[in-house]
Design a protein that fits this description.
The chain is an alpha/beta fold. It is built from 12 helices and 9 strands. α11 crosses α12. The longest helix has 14 residues. Bound molecules: iron/sulfur cluster. The site of iron/sulfur cluster has 11 residues, from loops.
Length: 345
């Protein structure tokens, strides 16, 4: 007979949606990650044993898309802590986008006219080593910390806002009950017409796109845009394609944004294949971001001149709708800033 405590725990576990069980079971041990990929533990620098508040975190579904025995795998490069993170570089900051200056109240960031960003969750399924929010004070900055009503009231009081962006962390790590409740309240605000969701979950954990998610997503009156985050064609497999297909079945528009990353996707051939792979599953490439200069991520930076050349090579191979816009975020700018040979960014 199974002991009572064990039976109770497994019952609760099996009641959880599959994606939440996967979230509880992410790879968080460096040694285990290397073992799964048949890589030598000698690859680890002793300094990365402690990554503080931003530890290794990667879903097993994403690990399964990495190439075994390849320490340069582009998916592994995005998640593996390295000693390079400890180099302090001038020009790189803890909070590169100064978002706290644009937070009228906890949980709300308003950088651009007509749009407002709600920090809907304080964590992600995956910890990307280049993340510009790796030092963001989530403990005090997301609305489930008692501020949800104030956030909705604040949006309702400003008729200039038309679009609400759910961001994080990753908003889709929040439960469907919380998300459906928030979206219901937002949809009652007459001056809102668009809901945007910035998420990497359908890419790194496609099982997140389940019936409970589709239920509330398909029933809001708000026009809905889901902006995915994939950086390399190896991230797009059949499961991701099916997740996108389920999303699109609810009538949402699906776009993708990428970050240009040294050692990950800084070859034109990979960027071209990424655009084609996205389009093949019904996703349009939207933005290609230059790296936000967060301390610890300098080794991912690609020079602007190289970025411009890569986009030009994409333009020569692809139709215009498959060439993402090259942009950089500049604190205080009224929108993302297009990067061109003339912009000097
Ligand atoms: S999913 Fe996005 S927000 Fe989360 S760690 Fe990666 S880049 Fe940062």
């Amino acid at each position: 007979m199974i002991p009572r405590t064990q039976a109770t725990a497994s019952t609760v576990e099996s009641d959880l949606p599959a994606w939440q069980q996967s979230l509880r079971n992410v790879v968080s041990s460096l040694e285990e990650l290397l073992e799964l990929l048949e890589l030598s533990p000698e690859l680890l620098d002793p300094r990365v044993a402690d990554c503080g508040d931003f530890p290794l975190r990667v879903p097993r579904e994403f690990v399964a898309r990495m190439r075994p025995r390849d320490p340069r795998d582009p998916l592994l490069q995005q998640v593996l802590p390295t000693a390079a993170e400890f180099e302090v570089r001038p020009g790189y900051r803890e909070q590169p986008l100064e978002e706290e200056l644009f937070a009228p109240r906890p949980g709300l960031i308003q950088k651009y006219r007509g749009r407002v960003l709600v920090v809907t969750a304080g964590s992600c399924a995956i910890n990307c080593r280049y993340c510009f929010r790796r030092n963001f004070p989530y403990a005090s900055q997301h609305p489930w910390a008692g501020e949800a009503t104030a956030v909705v009231d604040s949006i309702a009081a400003d008729p200039s806002i038309r679009e609400v962006i759910l961001s994080g962390g990753d908003p889709l790590v929040a439960s469907d009950r919380k998300l459906a409740g928030l979206v219901d309240r937002l949809s009652e605000i007459e001056h809102l017409d668009t809901l945007r969701i910035h998420t990497r979950l359908p890419v790194v954990l496609p099982s997140r796109v389940d019936q409970r998610l589709l239920q509330w997503l398909g029933h809001t009156r708000l026009a809905t845009v889901v902006v995915l985050h994939a950086n390399h064609p190896q991230e797009i497999d059949g499961e991701v394609g099916r997740a996108v297909s389920r999303l699109r079945g609810t009538g949402v528009t699906v776009l993708n944004q990428s970050v240009l990353l040294a050692g990950v996707n800084d070859r034109a051939a990979d960027l071209i294949t990424l655009s084609r792979s996205l389009f093949a599953v019904g996703v349009l490439p939207y933005y290609l971001h230059l790296l936000d200069r967060v301390q610890g991520a300098a080794h991912f930076e690609v020079a602007t001149s190289v970025a411009l050349r890569l986009v030009e090579e994409m333009r020569q191979e692809l139709p215009g709708y498959l060439v993402p816009r090259l942009v950089r975020e500049v604190p205080g700018a009224p929108s993302k800033v297009p990067v061109t040979a003339r912009s000097g960014l």
